[in-house]
Each structure stands twice: as structure tokens, then as C-alpha cells.
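Quick question: what would this complex look like in 3D?
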Amino acid sequence: MHRFLLTILAAGCLIPITASAHKTWLLPSQTVFSGNDPWLTVDAAVSNDLFYFNHFPLGLEGLQITAPDGNSVEPENAAQLKYRSVFDVPLTQRGTYRIARVSNGVFAGYELNGERKRWRGKPESMATEIPKEATNLRVTESVSRIETFVSNGPLTTENLQPTGNGIELVPITHPNDLFEGEQATFRLVVNAEPSKGLEVTILRGGTRYRNAQDEIHVTTDANGEFQITWPKPGMYWIETSIQDSHTSVDQANSRRLGYTATLEVLPQ
Amino acid sequence: MPSIRCTAILFLLASLPSYADESGGKFAVSIEIPRLNVSEYHRPYVAVWIQDENKQAVANLAVWYQMKRSSEGGGTKWLPDLRQWWRRSGRSLDMPVDGVSGATRPAGKHSIELALDEKRLTNLSPGKYSVMIEASREVGGRELLELPFDWPATTGQSAQSTGKEELGVAALKIQPSK
């Protein structure tokens, strides 16, 4: 009887935590490159812990790799494995590459014959995939960007300007020039406009080897900017999300925007 | 036995009056790469540069790395392991750099000498500077030493620092011209 109660209590405690804790990320093999023929390799996953492949692979549709000259690059050796996706990028140009997985979609909830249904997909598929008889249709537009940055030789910024779609990070401190004990400044923009009041969570990887998450919370100021002084070297995960009503899909009455980035902080 | 004889000769040479001093001043950096008893030894990569008070690199004195040609570009792949040098200077350079790049050095004492009228020094505006020495060894450690000095050097100056693992004694000696 006691054991049964404990199980229920434990389940009750754990479900909400795990349900809200899934983290999406791209993990670059390294962020600073040199040499004649440097290759970046990237892991992409959805997990509870950073940066461990223990939950789902991150789908690679919507991958946008931008070379220093602004041209897009196709990934090589891309594969979706059981717990992670992988791809390689030969860094043929000198400068900074932006590697992003961007998704634009909608999710909908509706009722059909008294039953509640959920649907996810592209806006253009809604008309054919959601039955005409559906009632209480609620549509939410979703725009998310998961990204990381790597530099081969000099640090450049030409291709780090906002595309205007969803939440984006505009570096004031270069994302490949981050060092322990130093302060970095970044601006967050929503559809290319600086966004005040965004709540940002910053979390260092290696959570498996410590007892606390040690999350850092910061909020963007009137210029959309936030500062962080890096407490320790490591791979960091940065996340923010908001919900608003500025939808670009006609049927949608709300919009969810998400952003995550993986940044490497080096020791002095 | 031969090494003792060599040391003795070097000692004699060092004790002779230096005629170079009379023609012009000298800026000498000596660097000791310690002999390490490790199972897998690779010669360290070493960078030597001058930085100003804002930690900006203002002159490169030496970069010793694996220069042999290879598919990875003759060792340039590992230059970012010289973390501070890479940040302050390396990442914006096209290697090799004339008069700066060189092959890795074996354990022992090495020196870099510049004439005081060399451009890399005469280009410096008056102020406080440091010679920075960074060493990084494959499957080993990394170490950074700093030797401060004032410029222009109107009187003799010297500075010394000793590393713990990857670098031994490093010294700077500035002898102005007479």
C-alpha cells in the first residue's frame, strides 16, 4: 500500500517536470577552427539533460547553414539516428558560419464528433488535413529557431544579421569570442525588431555531473539586450520563448515563438 | 660528457663582452621548454607576442608549430589551442608569417632576439607592455607566462617568470644602446 502510494506520488511529481524540460539543441564539435580543410560535425537532439543524447533525435528538415559570404551550404553525411541526428559541414570559407534549424508550422486543436483532436503541420496542409466538420478549431502558429555559430579563422558578422522571421539573436559580443569571467552582450529581436522583456534562460552543459541545474535568468532591456558574465567555461544553452497574437497565418489566433542557441565559452 | 663541454663553451661565450651591445640595443626573450617524462610526448606549440595594457596584440615575435605539410594544413589545425594568442592575433593571420613562424622546438633553452631599432619595437607608442609566452602541447597542458616591460626602454630592464608544467624559466632582457 505504501509502495503504491509512493509510486503515484513520484509519478505525480515527475510528469510535469519532464514534460516541461525537453531541450532542443545543436551541438557543434567545436566552435573555433583553423587549418586547410576544417570540418565541423554537429549533433542535433531533444533531451532532458545537456548535452546528452537520451530522448529524441532533432529532425533536420529546415536546416539553414549560412556561410560567411551569405550563401547557403548543404550539410554532408546527414543522418537521423535513434537518439540524435548528425551532419557534417566542410568549412571551405574563412569567417563565421551560422547553423540553424528553423521551423515554421502550425498546431491545431479541434473537436470532431464530440472527440478532442490535435494536429501539427504546415499551414498550407491545414485545409486538406483538418476535416471541414471540425468544431472549436483553435490554431496556433509556431516559429522556432535552434542555432549555433562556428568560426574558421577570423570572426565575421555579415551573415549574422536577422532574417526577420521569429526570435533571433543579434550578437553585440561575437558568439565565438566568449571567455570565462567576461561579460557578453546580445540583442534579441522579434521579426527583426528589438524585443523588451524577453525572459532568457542560460544553462551550462554537463548537467549530469552536478546536482543543480544552475540556471541563469536574465531579461532583455528596452534595446532587446541582455548581458551575461560567463561563470565557467563550457558549452552553454540559451533559450527564450514568447506567445503573441501577431500571426501570419489567417486561421491562427496566437503565435508561439521559440529560440535556442548553443554557445561555447572558453577558459582564459 | 659532450653536453657538459657544450655548456662550458656556452658559458665562456656568454661571459665574453658582447660587441653587439655597442652597435645597438637588444631585446632578448629566452624561453625554456622543459623535458617532460610522459608516455606520449609531442613538442609544444609556442606563441610569443607583445601585448599592450588592453591585452591587444601589437607585435608577434614567434609562433612555433608543426609546419610539415599534411592534409590538415601542416599543423595549422591545432593553432587555436594557443587560446589567447589565437584570440588576440592568430585567427586573423594567414599562416605562415615571415619572420614569425617556425618549426616546433625540442626541450631546452631557446632565445628570440630583436634589435631595438626593429620596426616591431619602434612602432610601439610609449607605454606599458608585456611579452606573452603561451605553450600548448598535444595530449598535454597549456600555460601562459607574462613578462612586463616599459617602452621606450631608456634604461636596462629585465623580467622573469617560471612556468609550472609546459614552460620552464622565461626571461626578458632589454639592453638599450650605449
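Answer marked as accepted. The interface with chain B takes residues 32-38, 151, 153-155, 177, 179, 266-268 of chain A (CB under 8 Å).
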